[in-house]
């Protein structure tokens, strides 16, 4: 099934401003611009030593149900996929980050390689004072998303935009975007590093 997904998908983008999709039951996605995900940084070679994710940025798929379910702590950015473990490496807090402002409206972009019925999109952010040198855990994240976009099991169009206000923060943080697929047991995960 993983090979089928890989062959079907190249280039799904999560955070920035639009959701894009194409056609079959195998969907994939990751955050793009203006807030760029770690997997996108690997795919466009802004960051090196990324392993397989550089060829499969759209494939960060894991169990849905976050935060009560989903990938284990420390494996969240890779969706629990060991083959993409480079995404969980904090790299000493040195992942490239997008400059953002507290309270500002931020547009998030999803791009799909294949459309899939969708339950919702949720965006979580790290707590003030979290440790950027450690792998991402639930304890480091706010327990509630700062933005939830319900999608009611509909199939998204080729592009979809949604915006929300960022919480008040200072310093470096991680935004975790979770796209919950409606008709499979999985969701797609994307970590994006931001600098307030």
From TrEMBL:
Coiled coil: none annotated. InterPro entries: Cellulose/chitin-bd_N (IPR004302), GlcNAc_Chitin_IntDeg (IPR051024), Ig_E-set (IPR014756). Residues 58-100, 147-168 are annotated as: Disordered. Gene3D superfamilies: chitin-binding protein cbp21. Residues 28-194 form the Chitin-binding type-4 domain. This is Lytic polysaccharide monooxygenase. Keywords: Monooxygenase, Oxidoreductase, Signal. GO terms for molecular function: monooxygenase activity. The keyword Signal applies.
